[in-house]
């Protein structure tokens, strides 16, 4: 178990649990108000910086997100090891971040045991050492999980900064290639 910051709730990596206990964390009875085929899925969004308060209205900000189902929030984070970076926390209380809002994403028909198995399978694609701020971050994980569970995409503003980063990165590569080719063309005409 990872130590929480500031006395917050603990973060429990998925793979650190005893495999035999994986399906024991959920009750075998129906959740209050919903059947196993009607479990709500929420995207919980957190501010990474206080500056979000000033730029959120314009559709910008730096956000962390997690997916909440059956009273557990799943998220993805970075670490230096080739093991899963998927972890679980108490909903709307991810340590180190300020909770902003919870967004209803839809309904899943997976029961708690099926959901746990699904998250375990998906976590194999999200190792902590593969985390990348622009190409594979917590918001990409949530987009993937929400879409697979509900068929709905998360709001674009949640990961807009990464999308801008991808576009900037692609433009830089194109510009570099263009300038490189132009420079080589210049050399071939004037020097050779």
Automatic annotation (TrEMBL):
Keyword line: Hydrolase, Protease
GO biological process: protein deubiquitination; proteolysis
Keyword Chaperone among UniProt keywords: no
Regions crossing the membrane: none
GO molecular function, one term: deubiquitinase activity
Domain named PPPDE: residues: 39-168
Pfam family, one: Peptidase_C97
Family the entry assigns: Belongs to the DeSI family.
The protein, known as: PPPDE domain-containing protein
Origin species: Gossypium darwinii
Higher taxonomy: Eukaryota, Viridiplantae, Streptophyta, Embryophyta, Tracheophyta
